[in-house]
Amino acid sequence: MNDPLAAFLRHLSVERNASDHTLRSYRSDLTEFQRFLAERGVAGVAAADGRTMRAWLVALHARGLDPASIGRKLAALRSCCRFLVRRGAIERNHARDVRGPRPPRKLVTFLPIDEATQLVKGRAVAGANRPRDVAILELLYASGLRVSELSGLDVDALDRADRSVRVLGKGRKERIVPYGEHASRALDAWLEARGEHPGPVFTNPRGRRLTVRSIYTIVRRAARAAGITRPVSPHTLRHSFATHLLDNGADLRMIQELLGHSRLSTTQRYTHVAADQLMKIYDKAHPRA
After folding, report:
1. For 153-191, what is each residue's pLDDT tens digit?
2. Is the Cα torsion angle 8, 13, 18, 21 positive or negative in sign?
3. 282 included as an active-site residue
4. Domain boundaries, the chain
5. Does the annotation mark 105 as catalytic?
């Protein structure tokens, strides 16, 4: 195998149907590891042993990378080595024996209902792009879409009569997500201003698809205009969507499906915020409460 990295990325793209974002991340992480090996005179991934891999993690830590970033890079390396073992390019996956850092358990950040409502109404949003920006805010909160999913939306993915959207999520997995009346009205207003033609739902003034970075900027600017002092991002609205559903009695499995999580354990991060609701149910239901 002349180029193990190229073969692995081709495998991810063709056989695993990985997203462009996943491919960019794996390419970046593994290219960085290859540079580390070259600086130490190691002839590529196939020649790297566990000690070398641990030295890479130490170097990453010394650069100030957080445990989650280091863990992601190690996961990319493990996946690549597993592929090379299956292809017979190496005999053993040494990366599997390397322990990654334990990331601190992060609690999700979300907005209280009143702040979320104040933000997505967009009363403080002004300018020629107001219909578009309000539609972005409303749809993020109404559907819980990832920012990359919102950026990638095309008009033909919208079922405006049924008020639902077809989403291509992580791992190219497709799901159908409903959205509410407020988001529907905001979308209709934006699409009327945009023009009823196919292509990206959210575009810049030149008609090109809005980037993820642009959507981040729109959300942060709207939050500041609404007087919200805490940091707010598109992911904050996704967390708020899930938290408010759970807090109002929605089933965890349903929320998992709406968010596009492959594992229920990922969705369970939201259960901490339902403690107040749980205590209310307990007080009402238990005879000795």
Report:
1. 999 999 999 999 999 877 678 899 999 999 999 999 999
2. positive
3. no
4. 4-97, 113-281
5. no
